[in-house]
Amino acid sequence: MHIVVIATECAPVVKVGGLADMVSGLGRALAQRGHVVELILPWYDTLRREQIQGLNVARADLPIPWWDGVVHCTVHFGFVHGLPCHFVEPHSRDNFFNRGPLYGFPDDPLRFAFFCKAAMEYLFVTDRRPEIIHTHNWQTALAAVLLYEVYQPHGMNNCRVCHTIHDFRHQGVCTTEVLKATGLGRPKYFLDRERLQDDADPRMLNLAKAGIVYGNFVTTVSRRHAWEARFSDQGFGLGHALHMHQNKFGGILNGLDGDLWNPEADPLIPHLFSADDLAGKERNKEALRRRLRLTAEEKPLIAYVGRLDPQKGASLVRHALFTAVWNQAQFVLLGTGSDGNVNDTFVHLKHHLADNTDCHLEIGCDEELAHLIFAGADMCIVPSLREPCGLAQMIALRYGTVPIVRAVGGLADTVFDWDYAPLPREQRNGFVFEHADNTGIESALHRALGLYRERRDLWRQLLVTGMKTDLSWRHPAGDYLNVYEFIRHK
User: Fold this and answer.
1) Could you give the CA distance from residue 140 to residue 103 in angstroms, rounded to a whole number?
2) Measured between alpha carbons, how far is 208 from 170 in angstroms, rounded to an integer?
3) Helices (H), 259-330
């Protein structure tokens, strides 16, 4: 099968969040199964070009119709971890992709509408006719509209679109100028509730909704989050559109990059270990304590690694820290806040606790330290208020660090409570709490600390179960192939 992925991120060459990991992880898993996978990405000024092998110019001049004129583009080509990637570089005074940050500009809808137009035009003029075009988030959703409203009658009638929404909060609500710029026109036609009209403001277009309406199948990044998007406020106003298209909507859990996160071969940890030989994990705990100057006496070590913002349950992270220290445990935090007030809170907390040798707060990003924390900690908390998929709990499981999570999104699909999950004991792999409050996380922490201290044999069983859980892209890739097969015959 020929699959073209149109996306705005791909690890490791350009990454803001989980989208980048999903694009590269799924792409490689599909390629390993013998499918032809190609990626189309913007040529950002911040691309890690050293991560692109065999970089060359694939097309020196690709003219893209834009407004009433033409924008000329160069298309670069190279391989990222073995995946063939095409990078679109527009030569325009609008300076679409030479701005440092990838997102957050007032003209983002126009920037990414241009990218969608350029990607589809590139497929068209190079005679690429993939069976599947896989798009991601609102930024590339307009590609599906362009396919069916512009390009399908001109020889692309066998292409089908799978669209993945990683975060319903961001929707690309914009004016109708993107219709004029891309040549779609007909604002009255598209400003219809059954097409692109935003449900909250009938004067505006909703590009996330475009992916739902025009995609042949729509996925999100876990089964639980698919339910939340339809039936709770986590759809952020897209519940009606999802209801109308419920027969082509579902959740597929992301996988974990087994090359990057593997305690048996991780170059960033001092001691390798496996589910059958855990001696290295204990030595990593000692190394972590030495690096962060924590007390060396035997105590359970609890960690948080991730963003510090309200969505991630920052107030619960703070409460867990004090709960841990009050209960003779140690706590390590690595993260930074996108919310200034939250970040300031943890910077203040770091100074307040500077002399406490049972906790350490590292405000910032440190890839090597992140690996060591996952390898050395006993437990990892993920108390998110909203978590479409989640990565920290998967890494924790892989490294024998027992996750303590809130029952939301992908966390609920990957972590099964030791005491209460309706599964055989040998399939339970962590601790789960329901309510996003201090009582909830306290209860889960106390249960975890109790098992650690009172039944080390069962604790070992618990962490080994987590390490042996298959979190790779093997199952998700199979699920996506089933979706592709389903829609290619429609």
Assistant:
1) 13
2) 8
3) 279-292, 314-326
Distance CA 235, CA 233 (A): 5
Query: What are residue 473's phi and psi, to 5 degrees?
Result: -80, 5
Q: Write down the residue that tokens 């109790």 correspond to.
A: 450
How many residues would you count in the chain?
Answer: 490
For residue 468, the number of C-alpha atoms closer than 13 Å in the C-beta half-sphere is: 13
Residue type, 159: C
pLDDT band at 337 (very low <50, low <70, confident <90, very high): confident
For 458, the domain range is 279-468
| pLDDT tens per residue, range 349-358 | 999 998 999 9
Q: In the structure encoding, which two tokens stand for residue 186, read together?
A: 């007909």
Give me the percent of the chain exceeding a pLDDT of 90: 94
pLDDT surpasses 90 at 341: no
Whether residues 308 and 251 fall in one domain: no
List the CATH number of the domain containing 213: 3.40.50.2000
Q: Is 151 a member of any domain?
A: yes
> How many domains, the chain?
2
How many whole angstroms separate alpha carbon 281 and alpha carbon 463? 11
User: Could you tell me the two tokens for 464?
Assistant: 């080994």
d(CA 199, CA 176): 15
- β-strand pairing of 83-91 with 69-80: antiparallel
The structure's pTM equals: 0.94
- CA 462 to chain centroid, in Å, comes to 26
Residue 154, exposed/middle/buried by CB under 10 A (0-12, 13-18, 19+)? exposed
Give the Cβ contact number of residue 329 at 10 Å.
Answer: 23
Residue 336 pairs in a beta bridge with none
Taking the C-alpha atoms of residue 448 and residue 327, their distance in angstroms, rounded to an integer, is 12
**Domain-located, residue 313:** yes
The dihedral through the CA atoms of 74, 77, 81, 84 has a sign that is: positive
Q: In what order do the strands lie in the sheet with 36-42?
A: 53-66, 69-80, 83-91, 36-42, 2-6, 132-136, 160-165, 217-220, 249-251
- Whole-number average pLDDT of the chain: 96
Please indicate, yes or no, if residue 218 is contained in any of the structural domains.
yes
Three-state secondary structure call for residue 329: coil
